[in-house]
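Quick one:
INPUT:
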């Protein structure tokens, strides 16, 4: 709470001027407990919105155009008149602002300040948090802001903004998680119809995100290739998406086999969470990691080593989280053991790989919206 309040105050101070004319919105990042590379095939996932979020402080002005600053990276982004084509904007974070501005109509002019505690490039959906916060900040106020009438619409627009800014054909998981986050709950997403079902987290289970220290290089092009591979597999089966495929239809196709088996694991994991069955959850996370490593080929030796180190250190379960190719793994541990498990795993991982991992506990939090509790 203190950290958020401090971050809100810092964003408002950087915006300057009269606080009464400013608004602040917040959108969280996420860890995904299970269900990766399933969202863009209309499948299931089980993310958790986390207590690391992107804040945007914003004010409308009479001067046409936009001025945006970030408290995390250098550089100001500004234009007068209509927003520029996103891919032409430098510094690169300004591409998200330009893409979001193309969807909003908040007034003749806008000033805004961005500040995020979601680590960038870690697989914790920092881009989705940024896009969701920007779309909320730049949305026209009601009644003309009816385009954001539902959380699903907000998530869909935020996803379109991310695609326009980055060119990566991401799915909808991260944005749905950011919008529909809930304290003490994971979110069972059905990405065919974009529904969200909160699944309470057992109080005895702690969640940790552990960064492998490996930047996600190749991620964009490999992500698009995997997605195209899944679409081709669905076409070969005469299906509109792999969501409708059965395991026996994809037995000889590793990409599709991952997707179909992962969808089953997500539903089983939701049931295991509801039953408080930590051992079953652990086995499902292990099977997911193996499938992402061997069939979908998005793990790396470092991510594998980090998962092994966490399990050896006593984690209930661990797997890569998000797109893969580096970044974070998610770990589940019994609450009373969690700090020691994370510390032991980080030490083992460093001894084996020479890389420094960074572990941080995360808590499930509420989804995106206006920040009201500041003065
Ligand atoms: C990234 C994308 C998501 C999803 C995951 C993999 O986080 O933004 O849409 O596809 O990768 O599950």
């Amino acid at each position: 709470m203190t950290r958020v309040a401090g971050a809100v105050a810092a964003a408002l101070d950087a915006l300057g001027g009269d606080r009464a004319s400013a608004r602040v919105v917040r959108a969280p990042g996420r860890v995904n407990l299970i269900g990766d590379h399933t969202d863009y095939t209309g499948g299931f996932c089980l993310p958790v919105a986390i207590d690391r979020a992107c804040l945007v402080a914003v004010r409308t002005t009479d001067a046409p155009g936009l001025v945006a600053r970030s408290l995390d990276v250098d550089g100001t982004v500004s234009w007068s008149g209509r927003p520029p084509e996103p891919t032409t904007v430098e510094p690169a974070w300004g591409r998200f602002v330009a893409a979001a501005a193309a969807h909003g109509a908040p007034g003749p002019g806008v000033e805004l300040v961005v500040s995020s505690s979601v680590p960038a490039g870690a697989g914790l959906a920092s881009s989705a948090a940024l896009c969701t916060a920007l779309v909320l900040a730049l949305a026209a106020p009601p009644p003309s802001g009816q385009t954001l009438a539902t959380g699903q619409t907000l998530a869909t627009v935020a996803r379109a903004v991310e695609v326009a800014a980055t060119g990566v054909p991401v799915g909808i998981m991260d944005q749905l998680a950011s919008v529909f986050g809930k304290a003490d709950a994971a979110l069972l997403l059905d990405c065919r119809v974009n529904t969200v079902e909160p699944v309470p987290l057992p109080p005895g289970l702690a969640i940790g995100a552990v960064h492998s220290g490996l930047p996600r290089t190749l991620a964009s092009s490999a992500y698009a290739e995997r997605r195209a591979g899944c679409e081709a597999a669905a076409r070969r089966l005469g299906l509109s998406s792999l969501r409708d495929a059965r395991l026996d239809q994809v037995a000889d196709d590793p990409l599709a086999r991952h997707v179909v088996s992962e969808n089953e694991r997500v539903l089983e994991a939701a049931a295991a969470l509801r039953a408080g069955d930590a051992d079953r959850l652990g086995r499902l996370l292990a099977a997911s990691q193996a499938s992402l490593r061997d069939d979908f080929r998005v793990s790396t030796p470092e991510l594998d080593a980090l998962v092994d180190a966490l399990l050896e250190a006593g984690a209930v379960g661990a797997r890569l989280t998000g797109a893969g190719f580096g970044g974070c793994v998610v770990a589940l541990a019994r609450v009373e053991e969690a700090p020691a498990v994370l510390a032991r795993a980080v030490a083992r991982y460093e001894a084996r790989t020479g890389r420094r991992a960074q572990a941080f506990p995360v808590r499930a939090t509420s989804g995106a919206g206006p920040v009201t509790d500041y003065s």
